[in-house]
Amino acid sequence: MRIIGGIHRSRKILGPREGDRTTRPILDRVKQALFDRLWAAGVFPPADEEGLIVPQGNVVDVFSGTGSLGLEALSRGSDHCTFIERDSYAVNALKQNLATLGLADQATVLATDALAGVWLGLLPKRPVRVVFLDPPYDVMQPAQTAARTPRDMAEEEAEVVVEGFESEEAYYAQEERERRRPAKKKGRRESAALPSGPSQEQRVWDLIASIASAPGVMEPQGLLVLRVPEGVAPRTVAGWEPPVPHVYGKMSLLFYRKG
User: Which of 32, 175, 184, 251 shows its CA 20 to 30 Å from the CA of 25?
Assistant: First the structure.
């Protein structure tokens, strides 16, 4: 896994743990296309006459994992990034990445539930210019495609190395080991019926609306980028202009601008 642009270009960073079946790997070509569009939208500051970049603008990386998108934004000129992630392994790896790149002073890590939205009142730097929202498989995966594996999605997007592994072969070998592993028996608590309430996907749309309505959180023309798999229809959300979708294989990036 690596940074692909900016002052830390080509620097390696820690990725998801092997066997992580909830993280959707983002391929280099998709990440490059994402940041090219953000650059064209004027999100990142241009270099001065001496080739130096004065950092500008705050970003938030929600469901950040080990920080791929937020670290990329900092490398390209964002002033500060708040990372929202509750998985302990990912949080520890993210902090190591920040230390390795010397970016700890430009970052805040909030180890909390992204969907709860409590973090909206804890942001140390605002207003925010860009929010990256990249929910894991089991949150946004539509029912008709839930059986698709990370390998399926990687093959559909491009024949490139999957982030976090040395090669596609290593990634697929790990997936095969996971598939062959005997399923764990469910205990009483695991098998008990969950209480009724909004679906995980609906909670994502509700969070997007909350981000727009929270006082002082977003810049007037701020952007939110949501990554969704095939089968998840774009929605118009209160407080945002209608999304502009960009399709990459079997996934889409939805660009929302503050209304």
Answer: 184
